């Protein structure tokens, strides 16, 4: 039998679900999208339907272009991390997203590769490419990074008894870097272990440009370090990984249904 669920957990879950129940147009969090991703909605609803579990933050996966900060101010990348994203390594503060999509990005038609820098948030012809651009880079200049980041989901659980099968379901579904957090106060009956479902295996990151500062305090430029054909290749790989990520989400949704056994008071098994 699972241990009794603390009343404090029920209160926390009710507060979280109240926020999730509002229409997407009214719901907001710290991510650029500001709402629950459609690709992960079924999994979230499935988990939240069971006693002892509640999702606290999520990102179904995304393609992103991130400009590193200059070390000053708040870092929007870190704010996104707080709601479940793995984040794009590299900014120290004041960075910003130039492009974010929680769906695959397909660009068709003649001259599609020519459109990609503009679509991804870079100027049409911001600077030199290839060797000439790389020779202009100097240490300390900020990079622009392209990334695909797979799903990450945080679930607060009522006890380790609840957390263990959820963790097993996630790992068996391909999210092999999943783990349990918030284990410092397990002697506290009100402690709520947090399961983080994630994988690094599908991640993709590449430096595609750097920020060329203007010595006269004028507008800066993006100096592209790769060709438009390289953008096309990156986007193709990211789209393929988006679909692989979706298969793992669906596998986790099916595996997670074993949690219902625990919700009914029997032993939770995977």
Automatic annotation (TrEMBL):
GO MF: methyltransferase activity
Enzyme class: transferase
Highest taxon of the lineage: Eukaryota
Any single biological process term in GO: methylation
S-adenosyl-L-methionine keyword on record: yes
E.C. number: 2.1.1.282
Coiled-coil residue windows: none
Catalyzed chemical reaction(s): 4-demethyl-7-[(3S)-3-amino-3-carboxypropyl]wyosine(37) in tRNA(Phe) + S-adenosyl-L-methionine = 7-[(3S)-3-amino-3-carboxypropyl]wyosine(37) in tRNA(Phe) + S-adenosyl-L-homocysteine + H(+)
UniProt keyword Chloroplast present: no
Annotated SUPFAM superfamilies: SSo0622-like
Chain ranges of the tRNA wybutosine-synthesizing protein domain: 12-251
One Pfam short name: TYW3
Gene3D superfamilies (UniProt xref): tRNA wybutosine-synthesizing-like (3.30.1960.10)
Alphabetized UniProt keyword annotations: Methyltransferase, S-adenosyl-L-methionine, Transferase, tRNA processing
Region (Disordered) location: 68-89
Family under the similarity heading: Belongs to the TYW3 family.
Protein name in UniProt: tRNA(Phe) 7-[(3-amino-3-carboxypropyl)-4-demethylwyosine(37)-N(4)]-methyltransferase
Organism in which the protein naturally occurs: Endocarpon pusillum (strain Z07020 / HMAS-L-300199)
